[in-house]
Amino acid sequence: MSLFLCFSFLLFLISSVTACDRCVHQTKAAYFSKASALNSGACGYGSLAPGFNSGHLAAGIPTLYKDGAGCGACFQIRCKDNTLCSSKGTTVIMTDLNHNNQTEFVLSSRAFMAMANEGMGKDILGLGIVDVEYKRVPCEYRNQNLGVRVEESSQKPNYLAIKLLYQGGQTEIIAIDVAQVGSSNWGYMSRNYGAVWDTSRVPAGALQFRFVVTAGYDGKWIWAKNVLPADWKPGVAYDSGIQITDIAQEGCSPCDHGVWK
C-alpha cells in the first residue's frame, strides 16, 4: 500500500471517531483535591499546566485522551443540579489521563467550582462527585500561535523532543515531520507520550515542521516554515508562526443525547 493510501486510511479511521465530538454527553465529574496533581499530568505539560486557561483543567478517560492525541482539547462542561450550578458551566482544557473509574472527568478544583452559581463554589466542592453533561468545543487562542517547546531531554545533535502548546480549533495532531529549513528531506517524529514528540534523527541548522491535523472528517498538512533557530536550546518555547483554527465537521449521524440548550 502506498504512503498516500496509508495516510488516507489513517485519516479515515481517526476522523470517523472524532467527527461527533460536538454531541452532548452525560457523565460524572470529580475534582483534584491537591493542585500538585496537575503538574504530573500524562500530557507532559508539567508546571506549565496551571497557567493554561486560568487553571480550568481536566483529566479525561482513555477514549478522550486518545493515546495523547486528545491533549489540549477543550470541553464545555456543566453540572446538572440546576439549584447549585449555572447553565453556562465552564470550559476546560484536557491536560491529563483520568484513572478514576467512577467518572469520565476529574477537574481542577478551580474548574469544578466554576460550574457553580456565584457564592456556591464551596457547596459543590462538598459533593465531591456531580452529574454533568459536556461537549467538545474549539480551543481559542486569539493572540497566540501554536508553540513548539524544546524539552530539557533534548541533546543536540542526537536527540530532539518537542512539546506542542496552544493548539487551537477542534483538532488533533496525528503526525509531525521535521526538516532543515529550505530542505525537502523530511524525517518523521514519533509521539513519545501526551503532547511530547521526539526523534533521534535531528537535521542540522534551523528547523521547519509540518503537521498532519485532523478535525472531524477533514485532515490536512499544515506547514510551519521556520520554527527552531540553528542554535535552539532546551527549555525554550518557540513560536511556530501558525494558528490552527479548524473546526470538526458534522458529517455524522444525529447526536444521541440532544443538543446543548
Automatic annotation (TrEMBL):
Source superkingdom: Eukaryota
Residues annotated as domain Expansin-like EG45: 40-144
Residue ranges occupied by any Expansin-like CBD domain in the UniProt entry: 158-240
KW Lipoprotein (keyword) present: no
Protein keywords: Secreted, Signal
Pfam families recorded: DPBB_1, Expansin_C
Primary localization class, coarse: secreted
Signal peptide: 1-19
Subcellular location per the Swiss-Prot or TrEMBL entry: Secreted
Family: Belongs to the expansin family.
Descriptive protein name: Expansin-like A2
Organism: Hevea brasiliensis
